[in-house]
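Incident review: delayed structure delivery

Summary: a single-chain prediction request sat in the queue longer than the usual turnaround. Root cause was a stuck worker, restarted by the on-call engineer. No data loss occurred. The affected request and its eventual output are reproduced below so the record is complete for anyone auditing the incident later.

Affected input:
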Amino acid sequence: MGRRVLVTGGVRSGKSRYAESLLQREPVVSYIAPGPVPDGSDPEWVARVAEHQRRRPESWITRETTDVTSALEGATTPVIVDCLSTWATAMLDEVGAWDAPDAQWRPEVGKRIDGLVEAWCARRDLTVAVTNEVGFGVVPEHRSGRVFRDVLGLVNQRVAACSDEVALVVAGRVLYL
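Output delivered after worker restart:
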Protein backbone atom coordinates (compact mmCIF):
# COMPACT_ATOMS: atom_id res chain seq x y z
CA MET A 1 0.00 0.00 0.00
CA GLY A 2 1.27 3.44 -0.86
CA ARG A 3 1.93 6.18 1.60
CA ARG A 4 -0.75 8.55 0.26
CA VAL A 5 -4.12 7.22 -0.85
CA LEU A 6 -6.98 9.29 -2.28
CA VAL A 7 -10.38 7.62 -1.95
CA THR A 8 -13.11 9.14 -4.07
CA GLY A 9 -16.70 8.33 -4.85
CA GLY A 10 -20.24 9.64 -4.70
CA VAL A 11 -22.30 10.48 -1.66
CA ARG A 12 -23.09 7.38 0.42
CA SER A 13 -20.82 5.24 -1.79
CA GLY A 14 -18.97 3.65 1.14
CA LYS A 15 -15.80 5.67 0.56
CA SER A 16 -15.39 6.71 4.22
CA ARG A 17 -15.78 3.15 5.49
CA TYR A 18 -13.30 1.93 2.90
CA ALA A 19 -10.80 4.66 3.83
CA GLU A 20 -11.14 3.77 7.50
CA SER A 21 -10.51 0.10 6.69
CA LEU A 22 -7.14 1.03 5.17
CA LEU A 23 -6.04 2.30 8.58
CA GLN A 24 -7.70 -0.30 10.81
CA ARG A 25 -4.41 -1.98 11.79
CA GLU A 26 -2.77 1.26 12.87
CA PRO A 27 -2.73 1.62 16.66
CA VAL A 28 -3.10 5.41 16.56
CA VAL A 29 -4.54 7.48 13.71
CA SER A 30 -5.11 11.20 13.45
CA TYR A 31 -8.62 11.61 12.07
CA ILE A 32 -8.92 15.07 10.54
CA ALA A 33 -12.53 16.14 10.05
CA PRO A 34 -12.40 19.23 7.82
CA GLY A 35 -14.93 21.98 7.63
CA PRO A 36 -16.78 24.07 10.07
CA VAL A 37 -16.97 22.54 13.50
CA PRO A 38 -20.65 21.63 13.92
CA ASP A 39 -22.38 24.02 16.31
CA GLY A 40 -25.31 21.71 16.97
CA SER A 41 -27.73 23.68 14.81
CA ASP A 42 -28.04 20.88 12.23
CA PRO A 43 -29.32 17.70 13.93
CA GLU A 44 -28.61 15.52 10.87
CA TRP A 45 -24.97 16.69 10.76
CA VAL A 46 -24.58 16.09 14.50
CA ALA A 47 -25.97 12.54 14.10
CA ARG A 48 -23.64 11.77 11.17
CA VAL A 49 -20.58 13.03 13.08
CA ALA A 50 -21.59 10.95 16.12
CA GLU A 51 -22.04 7.82 13.95
CA HIS A 52 -18.61 8.27 12.39
CA GLN A 53 -17.05 8.70 15.83
CA ARG A 54 -18.77 5.57 17.21
CA ARG A 55 -17.37 3.33 14.51
CA ARG A 56 -13.77 4.55 14.84
CA PRO A 57 -11.38 2.94 17.31
CA GLU A 58 -11.03 4.80 20.61
CA SER A 59 -7.29 5.21 19.98
CA TRP A 60 -7.93 7.43 16.96
CA ILE A 61 -7.43 11.12 17.65
CA THR A 62 -10.18 13.27 16.12
CA ARG A 63 -9.43 16.84 15.14
CA GLU A 64 -12.22 18.95 13.65
CA THR A 65 -10.69 21.93 11.87
CA THR A 66 -10.90 24.14 8.82
CA ASP A 67 -7.08 24.27 8.73
CA VAL A 68 -6.37 20.87 7.19
CA THR A 69 -2.96 22.00 5.96
CA SER A 70 -1.70 22.67 9.50
CA ALA A 71 -3.30 19.47 10.76
CA LEU A 72 -1.48 17.44 8.10
CA GLU A 73 1.81 19.21 8.82
CA GLY A 74 1.50 18.64 12.56
CA ALA A 75 0.38 15.01 12.52
CA THR A 76 2.94 12.49 13.74
CA THR A 77 0.77 9.42 13.17
CA PRO A 78 -0.95 7.92 10.14
CA VAL A 79 -3.76 10.24 9.02
CA ILE A 80 -7.21 10.10 7.50
CA VAL A 81 -8.77 13.29 6.14
CA ASP A 82 -12.52 12.89 5.79
CA CYS A 83 -13.49 14.74 3.63
CA LEU A 84 -11.84 17.15 1.17
CA SER A 85 -15.29 18.12 -0.14
CA THR A 86 -16.20 19.55 3.25
CA TRP A 87 -12.84 21.34 3.38
CA ALA A 88 -13.44 22.89 -0.04
CA THR A 89 -16.92 24.06 0.95
CA ALA A 90 -15.66 25.66 4.17
CA MET A 91 -12.75 27.27 2.32
CA LEU A 92 -15.08 28.73 -0.30
CA ASP A 93 -17.22 30.11 2.53
CA GLU A 94 -14.20 31.68 4.23
CA VAL A 95 -13.04 33.48 1.07
CA GLY A 96 -16.53 34.66 0.12
CA ALA A 97 -16.59 32.76 -3.15
CA TRP A 98 -20.33 32.22 -3.28
CA ASP A 99 -21.20 35.85 -3.96
CA ALA A 100 -18.01 37.63 -5.05
CA PRO A 101 -16.51 37.80 -8.55
CA ASP A 102 -13.83 35.16 -9.23
CA ALA A 103 -11.02 37.72 -9.29
CA GLN A 104 -11.67 38.57 -5.63
CA TRP A 105 -11.40 35.05 -4.21
CA ARG A 106 -9.68 32.80 -6.74
CA PRO A 107 -6.07 33.82 -5.89
CA GLU A 108 -6.64 32.97 -2.21
CA VAL A 109 -8.21 29.64 -3.13
CA GLY A 110 -5.18 28.87 -5.28
CA LYS A 111 -2.83 29.58 -2.35
CA ARG A 112 -4.84 27.38 -0.01
CA ILE A 113 -4.95 24.50 -2.49
CA ASP A 114 -1.18 24.85 -3.04
CA GLY A 115 -0.62 24.67 0.74
CA LEU A 116 -2.84 21.61 1.12
CA VAL A 117 -1.13 19.80 -1.75
CA GLU A 118 2.33 20.66 -0.42
CA ALA A 119 1.42 19.26 3.02
CA TRP A 120 -0.15 16.16 1.39
CA CYS A 121 2.93 15.48 -0.74
CA ALA A 122 5.27 15.89 2.25
CA ARG A 123 3.55 13.16 4.30
CA ARG A 124 5.64 10.03 4.91
CA ASP A 125 3.27 8.10 7.17
CA LEU A 126 0.26 6.34 5.67
CA THR A 127 -2.17 9.12 4.79
CA VAL A 128 -5.65 8.64 3.35
CA ALA A 129 -8.00 11.36 2.12
CA VAL A 130 -11.67 10.96 1.27
CA THR A 131 -13.33 13.16 -1.32
CA ASN A 132 -16.43 13.33 -3.48
CA GLU A 133 -15.97 12.67 -7.17
CA VAL A 134 -17.63 15.69 -8.77
CA GLY A 135 -17.26 14.27 -12.26
CA PHE A 136 -19.99 11.73 -11.48
CA GLY A 137 -21.95 13.70 -8.90
CA VAL A 138 -25.12 15.65 -9.35
CA VAL A 139 -24.01 19.25 -8.91
CA PRO A 140 -26.58 21.95 -9.58
CA GLU A 141 -26.01 23.91 -12.79
CA HIS A 142 -25.88 27.35 -11.23
CA ARG A 143 -22.95 29.56 -10.28
CA SER A 144 -22.42 28.10 -6.79
CA GLY A 145 -22.60 24.56 -8.18
CA ARG A 146 -20.05 25.36 -10.89
CA VAL A 147 -17.72 27.07 -8.40
CA PHE A 148 -17.87 24.05 -6.07
CA ARG A 149 -17.42 21.53 -8.89
CA ASP A 150 -14.51 23.43 -10.44
CA VAL A 151 -12.65 23.99 -7.17
CA LEU A 152 -13.17 20.46 -5.80
CA GLY A 153 -12.27 19.00 -9.19
CA LEU A 154 -8.98 20.92 -9.06
CA VAL A 155 -8.32 19.82 -5.47
CA ASN A 156 -8.97 16.18 -6.43
CA GLN A 157 -6.70 16.35 -9.46
CA ARG A 158 -3.85 18.01 -7.57
CA VAL A 159 -4.05 15.60 -4.61
CA ALA A 160 -4.34 12.58 -6.95
CA ALA A 161 -1.22 13.67 -8.84
CA CYS A 162 0.80 13.35 -5.63
CA SER A 163 -0.87 10.16 -4.39
CA ASP A 164 0.56 6.67 -4.52
CA GLU A 165 -2.91 5.16 -4.95
CA VAL A 166 -6.31 6.48 -6.07
CA ALA A 167 -9.42 4.42 -5.38
CA LEU A 168 -12.92 4.97 -6.72
CA VAL A 169 -15.68 3.56 -4.52
CA VAL A 170 -19.08 2.89 -6.06
CA ALA A 171 -21.81 1.10 -4.11
CA GLY A 172 -19.20 -0.15 -1.66
CA ARG A 173 -17.05 -1.68 -4.41
CA VAL A 174 -13.49 -0.44 -4.91
CA LEU A 175 -11.70 0.18 -8.18
CA TYR A 176 -8.06 1.25 -8.05
CA LEU A 177 -7.20 3.77 -10.75
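Verification: The chain has one domain: 4-176.
Action items: add queue-age alerting; document worker restart procedure.
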